[in-house]
Design a protein that fits this description.
The protein has 230 residues and is mainly beta. It is built from 1 helix and 12 strands. It has a 4-stranded antiparallel beta sheet, with no helix packed on it.
């Protein structure tokens, strides 16, 4: 099959002669990247850990109820229904699917507890330049990306200007002499933090001064002129 692989243990979650709803939620990512996965029984998490996103491969044989390891056994029970999604469901979507299955198969399913909120990024700093502002901030544990927002100081409306996994960004969509406010938020597949602390920056055109001597040809009088270079 190729690629990295990983697994994690769960609490005892299979009981003989008991019908139950099992849910596996795994974050997305590029092939072979490490992501978090959680296994739940009837809406209650029984285990979580790090696994790897498999590469896209073509298999001649596919299994339901067993792994691809040759020594593993088969699932000794009945499977009524399997639903697979190509993305991580939101909390409300997951609750809706679990409610549908619980009603269909007469299962007692607990509501998933709300996820622990992500912390807001710290250390947001801004360095004003000529027609641009350089921004950087601290990484947040479990975050997969960051959303950067900007507003003109005189207004109250923020606009998102960037989203990505990096913890720095250069904003070149600004005008010299105008003041801007910035905040950043952390996010993952299901959560988004509150705004970070605000920072302000005012890009400016930098001037460098030099002295140039200009002498008249008809006499020896000289004058000094200050030349501003932009």
């Amino acid at each position: 099959m190729g690629g990295n692989y990983g697994w994690f243990g769960t609490a005892d979650a299979l009981t003989s002669n008991e019908a139950a709803l099992y849910t596996v939620v795994q974050a997305g990512g590029v092939a072979s990247s490490a992501v978090q996965a959680t296994v739940s029984k009837n809406g209650i998490a029984v285990g979580s850990g790090t696994v790897y996103v498999p590469p896209v491969v073509t298999r001649s044989t596919n299994y339901i109820g067993r792994s691809y390891w040759g020594g593993d056994g088969y699932f000794a029970g009945d499977i009524a229904e399997i639903i697979v999604y190509n993305r991580t469901l939101t909390a409300s979507e997951l609750a809706a699917v679990q409610g549908y299955l619980a009603q269909k198969y007469s299962l007692a399913v607990a509501e998933e507890p709300p996820p622990v909120p992500l912390a807001a990024p710290g250390g947001l700093g801004a360095t004003a330049g000529n027609g641009q502002v350089g921004l950087s901030w601290g990484a947040v544990n479990s975050a997969t990306g960051y959303k950067l927002y900007r507003r003109v100081t005189a207004t109250n409306a923020y606009a998102q200007i960037h989203a990505g996994a990096a913890t720095s960004y250069i904003d070149s969509g600004v005008s010299n002499g105008m003041s801007y406010d910035y905040v950043v938020r952390a996010y993952d597949s299901q959560r988004e933090s509150v705004d970070s602390a605000l920072v302000q920056a005012t890009p400016q055109r930098h001037c460098h001064s030099i002295l140039r001597r200009s002498c008249r040809r008809l006499d020896w009088r000289c004058c000094w002129m200050r030349v501003m270079l932009h």
